[in-house]
Input
Amino acid sequence: MISRIAISGYRSLRELTLPLGALTVVTGANGTGKSSVYRSLRLLADIADDRIIASLAREGGFESVRWAGPERISRGMRDGSVPVQGTSRKGPVSLKLGFTADETSYSIELGLPIPGLTMFGGDPEIKREMLWIGDKPIPSRVLADRRGPSIQVRGGAGEMRQVKTDTRPYDSLVRSATGPDMPWEIGRLRDQLSAWRFYDHFRTDEAAPSRQLHVGTRTTAISPDGRDVAAAVQTINEIGDPAALAAAIDNAFTGATLEVSSDNGLFRLHMRQHGILRPLGVTELSDGTLRFILLAAALLAPRPAPLMVFNEPEASLHSDLIPALSSLIASASENSQVIVVSHNRTLVATLLGVGAELIELHKDTGETSAIGNDIAPWQWPTR
Output
């Protein structure tokens, strides 16, 4: 389980470390940085497939996503007695991401290349990466260390040995340091990151993938766009927990049941509702009804993920459905670590009532911080 995440230099997250529990709710007013926390977690997951540079490009490039305020914010800047202004920088411009999970910590630092060496001067480079045991990157606890193109790993006898000197600036240690002679913790980290699941605003409009017919194959985890919802429901019915799915649907829509049919391999999802003489096709369901089904399929997946992150899952749901959604989320957190990003007070309050950890964000002088969180400080490796 991830016990904390650390972010530095990303959008409004100048320097932020957050504790995480089995079920964590991230909330705050609009513009306080909730989406930035969500996106930073997605960036970490992208490292497993060497997609972090491309993901930053889709967000507008490194210059668009990095912290745009001063390197340090004085007390006078915060109370308004002096203007907010930059000073001579003491450190390099960088974006850093890190987390601790199961006694192992990982961090990555990205910065800009030397000007004039490439036409891709806006693409960030990986400057430093490290995997270590414990809270602090003490030399004796380092398992793998990457500085620029050089990668060192700890050998079986406990010594640090160099294994690469030509790592490309956009290739992660997580992907580059592979093979039987590498520390097994690197492979575990790679598998862990690639298994994280993110669900951000399932589409439910008329042209949504979830309303179209698709060839059905066994689906142990619904896709982020929900196109395989019928196959996901049928997979739960066959190898998952169909009783839990039936209970969730009945809890949300009293007397309703789900059915899946197949026409030449194309799966169709239907819902039977009390008082309706025929099953309703997925194209006939309301946005809120379809969204709840999509969320239920994600939360009841037969193959639980180590981490599931939901960004505003309550969108388009009627307030009456919030207790049923909260119950689903709480049950899912027994098998997966779950993070919910939401500003819906009812959902937040209901999840807190079932034991969720609370992270409440606010913004001061353009910088996001968490209210009242008590956590040991995170220490970044030096470049």
